[in-house]
Amino acid sequence: MKEPGTDPVSLAAAPCNDCPLKTNPRSVATHPPDTIMSSHRLFPTTLIVAAALGSLAVAAPSRPADGKLKIFILSGQSNMVGFGQVKGSPGTMETYLKSNPKDYGHLVDENGAPVVRKDVWVVDISYPEKPRQGWLTTGFGADAGHIGPEYGFGFQVGDYYEDPVLIIKSAWGGRSLSHNFLPPGAGNYPQPQKDGDAGFQYAEILRHVREITGNLGKYYPHDAGKGWELAGFGWHQGWNDRIDQKAVDAYEQNLVHLIKDLRKDLDRPKLPFVIANTGMGGWNIPDNAPYKKRVEKLMNAQLAVADAAKYPDFKGNVAGVETRGFQRTREESPSKQDFHWLRNWETLYLIGKSMGDSMVGLLAGQPVAPAVR
What we know:
Order of helices and strands: HEHEHHEEEHEHHEHHEHEH
Distance between the termini: 27 Å
Radius of gyration: 19 Å
Number of strands: 9
Number of domains: 1
Strand order of the largest sheet: 4-3-6-1-7-8-9
CATH topology: Rossmann fold
Largest sheet: 7 strands, mixed
């Protein structure tokens, strides 16, 4: 039995690269959502716990302005690219705005159009043929109809900083940590030259940061006269590793190397680093599923890197986000793509928001523990 979503038949309708089909990102969407009626749904206990823990970071006072542009990097594979669906029903932004306006009403204006955050700028040059940049709103996911974790993340860090924020997205579908993102400290390989070479995505993250910060007039056409500061890194990746036992076995140490090598190469020894684990399937993966132990080992390995008792050097500067509680059912989601969180908008929003809460917690010296079941 294969893990759900790995059957090629189920991938035919997916314009993505987690599987490994490639995406073609497009421009930002700003159209107001149509009104969709939907019944209210109860939140699982895990989500309530996560929200309570997240409030510790949200409660942190905002960081006074010092005039420097605050830059965050968000990286990973296609679930960082983002397939949280905005329009339609069920499980879309339209649906949740109608069923849960208390939690999500702040995301749209008085006309029902998605809010445009004019204090959070997004740049994505992952696919050179489809570069994107603009103020944060919906549409910076896989295409104009989707969001990725940058959406919820941007709202949280944007609220925390009085200075403007720049989010650099470096994300590609169908890329593994064991090969494509492989950091130099974890493998002996020649300088990557092209996509598909070992370590190419690792090198691309560095190139993106240098390209964008070296040409701010092009990539951030606003006032950044007092310079910039690299403020943090967010990671959501793992599908291509979790379907390979060898990659799963090596994942924890590969991730440790990733953090250490990026900090060295970006010249930020304590750069705050947030890891959202690859929680597709949630807490209820069937006991008879042959991939259960492999998948759970990877998810736990991702969170283990944020365990200060195990990695004392990471205390107070690496945080983990438990995402299994954000899994929604197929019946309440717009897709059957298990590998893309069923394209459920709420799931992708909550992943990004929780990553933002955890990042704020690190920045404010109030680390947020991962939610427990």
